[in-house]
Amino acid sequence: MLYLHIPFCRSKCHYCAFYSRPASDSLMHTFAQALTVEIQLRHSEITHPIRTLYLGGGTPSILPLSLINQILTSLHRHFDLSRLEEATLEANPEHLSPSYLASLRSLGFNRLSLGIQRGSDADLQLLGRRHTVGQSLAAIDAALAAGFSNLSLDFIYGLPSPPDFLHFPLQAISHVSAYALTLEPRTALELHVKQGRLALPTDDEVARQYHQVRQWLASQGFIQYEVSNFSLPGKQSIHNSRYWNRTPYLGLGPSAHSFNGSCRSWNLASTARYIAALTSPSPTLPIEGHEILTPADDFNELLMTSLRTTRGLPLASVPASRLATLIKQAQPYINCGWLQSTPSHLQPTGEGLLHADGIAASLFV
Question: Which domains, ranges and CATH numbers included, belong to the chain?
């Protein structure tokens, strides 16, 4: 698994707390050069063929095709991509011309994740998005015409108005990610709420919207496989599913995280410092910190990731010394219908998925 963080956006969405910064042509070119140096310095950390590649951000579709090609050329030079199953690029609708999409396909991307978010222009403006509903629909049509048969749409619920994307056409769409709006610190949205300019719905209303979204997607043939992710049968995101299975991965770019199976590390969350480290006369790794996981960390991460999925927690992965205690601690959630126990798994129900993080945290060691 290989993840590349592209840190640029035209502007910051009002709800977003991910690391990003404004784009300029010169900065994007310098960043691409730095990224190719990191690729060269860290290629030995993955010795097996890469199965999934994911460009996230930020807004990867903000990059000119020449820079995407430069980055991919470096990846092909230093990693074995001969067995690549899934290559995903996150994109915003306003960036996608037919020629750009056709070029992405020719470069090898076979999956596109489109940030649609809402189905009304008013809500898109509330969120600080730069595109319109019309641009969303045009981008979907253009992506399908370019040959993207594996197309994912991102939506957000949990706004004061009901989910206004429930009328959105899903013909030929294979995957949907639907996220509850989170009020992140130091965002424009948090400021609006603090100033009384916006009142967010109650937890009960958010739960009602969640079930509305689940029912709508089920009616369209989509199967929920993780708290926020739904797909047609066999069309789950391979890359993201491996995160939830705790598959090791390498993350490149500013603020990107990596996991080698026993240690987590993270890069500098500063594009300027990242570039400086990699473009100096003696380039250095842009890693800011690392954490060696203890057995307790391993177990807690296993709980947190697996209980977010409909597959649930494989009991065979639980240390024998912990199993009886875990089942006893989980019993209240089984009794209230949030978890169900099978001979092989502890699985969240549809209602339990809404509380997955809290359930997992209560079972931590």
Answer: 2-244 (3.80.30.20), 295-362 (1.10.10)
